[in-house]
Amino acid sequence: MTAARSYTAKDITALEGLDPVRKRPGMYIGGVDERGLHHLCWEILDNAVDEAMNGHASEITLTLHPGREQITVSDNGRGIPVDKHPKTKKPALEMVLTELHAGGKFEGQNYKTSGGLHGVGASVVNALSKSLTATVKRDGGEYRMEFKRGKPTTKLLKKKGTARGTGTTITFEPDATIFPKIEFDADTIRQRLEVTSFLHKGVKVVFVNDDAKTRETFQHENGIADYLNAVIKQRSTRPIHDADFALERDNGVRMEMCFRWTESTDEHVRSYVNGIPTGSGGSHESGFRAGLNKAVRNFIDTHKLTPRGVKITPDDIREGVVAILSVFVPDPQFQGQTKDRLNNPEVQPTIDNALRPALEQWLNENRSVAETIVARIVAAARARAASRAAADAITRKTVTSSNRLTLPGKLSDCTAPGRHDSELFIVEGDSAGGSAKQGRDRVTQAILPLRGKVLNTESTALTKVLSNKELSDLVTALGCGIGKHFDPGKLRYQRVILLADADSDGHHITTLLLTFFFRHLRPLIEDGHVFIAVPPLYRVEVGKEKFYAADEADRQRILAEVNGRAKPEITRFKGLGEMMAKDLWDTTLNPATRRLLRVEITDALAADTVMNELMGKDPSARFRFIMDRAEDAEELDV
Ligand code: 0RA
């Protein structure tokens, strides 16, 4: 077999039809929620990317059609073959789109861009689409074939005359009988396309958003090096040295990585496997960390650079590192709830073994850069020792807090002995705290009023965070410690509920608190303990009946409903403090009648970016963020 061997229909091995896909879509695309819906898009996109990755296409265009229900992906690659398969007598194009796993291309040899959940190909998308049209330009002709729910509705049609160029264009509309909500998200798509253009240097990726009438082109000759610069800029941190470390290798696993140390106090790795983001890391990230740690440690030890009394940990070594890691694995195995963690053990040593010597050599050849980096690592080790002392002080207080004396004085604790069903309301301001204290169920509901200013904790070291009285009180009340000392088993409440006024100050404080939870107590969010209370804006009294309205629209709706009855009396709550304890109980505290939003991190990376963008610079944007978050949060029937 030679590389130049041309591909024909006989290379396609047919497996089975598409019925199983429609019966159990979740098995093929993970689910039929928003994520599953976008999965269709990635699936089609990945095929085009494959074509580009193998050097056959230079341009990919994704079009989001008005109404956001339809997508077109087109590439200038070789075009999906259209010749007839000798056995089935069906055009290859039809087989690719109607048979599961059809396509020689999808079986080893070449890397498939996708794997795990991905890699099931265009036929899955076809099966789950109300309609799909494939157009192919190849061998001087243009061909078209149409499908509905995976079944051909036309033969392979050849357009009259000749066509210039080659390529594949696929337009599809997901099937509303499969997906409860069909609305592609332009930001999600845009982000994916941009990353694609970084990971595949030189490829021109165009996003035509016909819904918003915009058009964007992404193309990066320097690939992930450009990506690294963009991420550093976006995280509003500064690199501590100039040129980044970069490594490109192919020893069974094709890998490409680059990184730099920055002033940031955390480590930020964006990793990808066959172009798919691996937000939960896995073997490739472990190999990366191991190689990085060993190389730097070896350099430090060889040159005896550790000051007396300082102990350097792997975390110190990697503090401030911003990295892009992209690997291509022939048969990737993904695991984890969101299938975004690589589980191919053999990948770890491959990366470790490539990175370690290369990085050590780089450090030795760039001595002044290396010294700057080591100085930063030593500083991190010292800061960690200081922050541990600060965190210890608080955790010690917390651990011994079975006697209530050590709890913050302003906490009105609940009387229930255990965490089961107990709630902590974090309330803005003293007067609101007062009504909440009166209105609550004192057995299960604790109130912690925040009086002082809550620190903006985006890019703030733990030591400083804990010197903020409001936040250290909060940590003490929660009981679960923080940072390295975090212990979810010690959490004193089942639910932590942020209760703030429905005005801009309220939004601000909620955002600051969420930032704090996100940066320093993220597992509380991940484990579903954090909620936002939604206090009403209006009370509408009609005769003996009382209604509460969450917003203006709600008020209008209620007024329309009671129209014709007794004259409605409307009260606008200016703040929680003005609300009667009884009103507060009925609307916001009483588990039977209140509205609560659970805070979720749907996509850790997106949340991270949003936090950075919003908390980093523009304060006005913060309000929008919290509004968006509230919309995203799942509404609970508590
Ligand atoms: C199978 C074989 C060949 C190309 C493709 C599939 C192909 C698939 C897609 C999906 C989107 N764009 C695509 N472009 C090409 C090889 C054909 C040959 O050897 O000429």
* Second CATH tier, the architecture of the largest domain: 2-Layer Sandwich
- Rounded to the nearest angstrom, the distance between the terminal CA atoms is 64 Å
| Unreliable residue stretches | 1-7, 11-15, 102-120, 396-405, 617-638
Strand content: 15-25%
Give the C-alpha Rg: 28 Å
Question: Could you characterize what this model shows?
Answer:
- With 638 residues, this protein is of the alpha+beta class.
- It is 38% helix and 20% strand.
- The chain folds into four domains: 19-218, Heat Shock Protein 90 (2-Layer Sandwich); 224-387, Ribosomal Protein S5, domain 2 (2-Layer Sandwich), CATH 3.30.230; 412-535 and 573-601, Rossmann fold; 608-638, no CATH class.
- The chain has 20 helices and 25 strands.
- The strands form five sheets. Strands 1, 2, 3, 4, 5, 6, 7, 8 and 9 form a nine-stranded mixed sheet that branches. The protein has a six-stranded mixed sheet with strand order 18-17-19-20-24-25, sandwiched between helices.
- Helix 12 (430-439) links the parallel strand 17 and strand 18.
- Helix 6 (186-199) crosses helix 7 (223-234) and helix 8 runs parallel beside helix 10 (347-365).
- The longest helix is centred in the middle third of the chain and has 33 residues, at 367-399.
- It starts with 18 loop residues before the first helix and ends with a strand.
- Residues 6-7, 47-48, 51, 75, 77-78, 80-81, 103, 105, 168 line the site of 3-[3-(1H-pyrrolo[2,3-b]pyridin-5-yl)phenyl]propanoic acid.
